[in-house]
Amino acid sequence: MTKAAEKQSPAEARREKKRAAILAIGRAVFFKDGYAGTSMSEIAAKVGGSKGTLYSYFPSKEALFRAVLEDYLAAHSQEMSSTIEGTGPPREVLLAFSKRFLDILTRPENLALIRLIYSEAGRFPEVGKAFYDAGPVQAQARLADYMTRAREAGYLRANLDPLTAARQHIVLSQGWIYHTRLWNIAPPPSRKEMDTAAEAAVDTFMAAYGAE
Fold it and tell me: Which of 1, 9, 33, 186 would staple 37 via disulfide (CB 3.0–4.6 Å)?
């Protein structure tokens, strides 16, 4: 048990447990029915309580959806961040990042989420914003921190802009594999295909930003 958990009062522990249950049910409903097709009344009924109780945790459907995404994507963010800690050589570090990133992106549940975001964002910009803040913004920031450290260590060009470089490497890492899976026009790639794509992304990045 963590120190934080030990300091919780019984009421706080019950509230945290209830919040976790709401997030789990909210995620299942949002992912199944989409943002437009989900109602707070339905979630309240599934949670087993009044709509007023649900609103005491999340004041709006948008707030609940944002919290669902933040909770869901936090584990993925940590999984990717573990590959870019420290100040190792870019070819080694970025290759590990690219492989892990592509692996996460092409998981069926994550492809389903991204398709949901694309389908709803046109009508509900708040959906796109919630996803962007909880996912891409976090990935860009953490990778930019590594880019800064690698630049300072002399691995990358001195004039490199860390955030721009991070964004470009993320796009390179997605490559054709991610998009063909997103559009559902190709079967799941083999491990060798994913590794080859990750290596090509790193090669392209280092050709542009590697220190001379």
Answer: 33
Neighbours of 194 (CB within 10 A): 20
What are the pLDDT digits (tens) for 119-158?
A: 999 999 999 999 999 999 999 999 999 999 999 999 999 9
Instruction: Look at the domain 1-59 and name its fold.
Output: Arc Repressor Mutant, subunit A (1.10.10)
Contacts of residue 101, defined as CB under 8 A and 6 or more positions apart, other chains included, come to 80, 139, 170, 173, 174
Q: How far apart are CA 142 and CA 35, in angstroms?
A: 28
> Is 70-209 in the same CATH topology as 1-59?
no
CATH ID of 70-209, from 3.40.50.1470, 1.10.357.10, 3.40.50.970, 3.40.50.1390: 1.10.357.10
Determine the Cα–Cα distance for residues 14 and 16; give it in Å rounded to an integer: 5
In tens, the pLDDT along 51-109 reads: 888 999 999 999 999 999 999 998 888 888 889 987 889 999 999 999 999 999 999 99
**Mean pLDDT along residues 167-182:** 95
Do 210 and 157 form a contact (C-beta atoms < 8 A)? yes
- What is the C-alpha to C-alpha distance for residues 81 and 97, in angstroms, rounded to an integer? 8
pLDDT at residue 8 in the model: 73
Closest CA to 50 of 59, 41, 58, 37: 41
For residues 160 and 212, the answer to whether their CB atoms sit within 8 Å is no
- Cα gap 131→168, rounded to integer Å: 19
